[in-house]
Design goal:
seven-stranded mixed β-sheet; NADP; GroES-like_sf; oxidoreductase activity; NAD(P)-bd_dom_sf; six-stranded parallel β-sheet; Quinone Oxidoreductase, Chain A, domain 1; 2 domains; alpha/beta; Rossmann fold; 9 helices; about 300 residues; ADH-like_C
């Protein structure tokens, strides 16, 4: 089988085709023929060597934390999945492959009308969004402010918050104004045209900083009400002292199966949307193109390499 990985750190052109034997599932695993895989900013950092010292890995490295495909073999202890089942998978790495094996705790059956391309874009951002909601412990009728609402995690949070009965204030760039309104936001602030921190000062019972890199010029702090709960996706330069309602995503473990169940509920009952910036071929060329464009200013949405379109 083919995998798309690299033998040295560097730019997108370090990717190459790698050949490997098709992996066989262990007792509690399934084998999956991959139909599509998502590409995320973490993959770019892995390729660049940002984790080479903190989390060293042997070469070659095959990135990819999310995929969708069809079960082609099952381990001897597996009873909930059969050959031919369509599944998605959230994993540490290795999704840029024609075949993978995965534990049944990290996969889920796809809803009948969910495409593999859509599903491959969902695990990374969807599980992160579910983790944010766990930290917030939201109550219907309250107001949530979502910064970076057009991004992968932010866009799911807007939809989830509306489904859960919250009033949603969203911030984004003016280029993504209509997109965020279409997701269901009640009010939208455009950070490139106005001071959103001043406009929505002290309005958020919950504030989520889902901006790229967490850089919001402290607008989220201004928009948070006294005793409001604040969650950021990125570790801040300085954490407020003695603030039990300030959280960083990753403080607690996220139950993958519970996250999948919630996301499928949104898909089935709230028409969950995952905006795709671009779908690309299931090839090393597709991977290189995605990594190149993700490193630049690109349209809002996810990049997916797919063999199904």
């Amino acid at each position: 089988m083919l995998r798309f990985g690299f033998n040295q750190f560097g730019g997108p052109d370090v990717f190459t085709e790698l050949t490997a034997a098709i992996p066989e599932p262990k007792q509690n695993q399934v084998q999956i023929k991959v139909a599509a895989f998502g590409i995320n900013p973490y993959d770019l950092r892995l390729r660049q060597g940002d984790f080479a010292d903190s989390r060293p890995l042997p070469m070659p490295i095959v990135p990819g934390t999310e995929l969708a495909g069809t079960v082609t073999a099952v381990g001897s202890d597996v009873t909930d999945y059969q050959i031919g089942d369509r599944v998605l998978n959230y994993r540490p790495r290795g999704a840029y492959s024609q075949f993978v094996t995965a534990s049944t705790t990290k996969i889920a059956h796809l809803p009948a009308d969910m495409s593999e391309t859509f599903a491959a874009a969902l695990p990374n951002v969807g599980i992160a969004a579910f983790g944010v909601l766990q930290l917030l412990q939201v109550q219907p009728g309250k107001t949530i402010v979502i910064e970076g609402a057009s991004g992968g995690v932010g866009s799911i949070l807007v939809q989830a918050a509306k489904y859960l009965g919250l009033r949603v204030i969203a911030t984004c760039s003016s280029a993504n104004h209509e997109l965020v309104l279409d997701l269901g936001a009640d009010e939208v602030g455009l950070y490139d045209r106005e001071n959103v921190g001043a406009r929505f000062a002290n309005m958020g019972d919950y504030v989520v900083n889902a901006t790229a890199g967490g850089h919001d010029n402290n607008a989220g702090i201004w928009m948070r009400r006294p005793n409001g709960v604040y969650v950021t996706l990125n570790e801040p330069d300085v954490r407020p002292e003695h603030d039990p309602d300030f959280h960083v995503l990753g403080e607690q473990r996220v139950d993958t199966q519970a996250a999948f169940a919630f996301l499928f509920k949104l898909f089935n009952h709230a028409d969950l949307q995952v905006h795709l910036a671009r779908t690309l071929p299931f090839s090393v060329t597709g991977v290189i193109t995605a990594h190149t464009e993700l490193a630049q200013h690109h349209p809002a949405g996810k990049y997916v390499c797919t063999a199904t379109e």
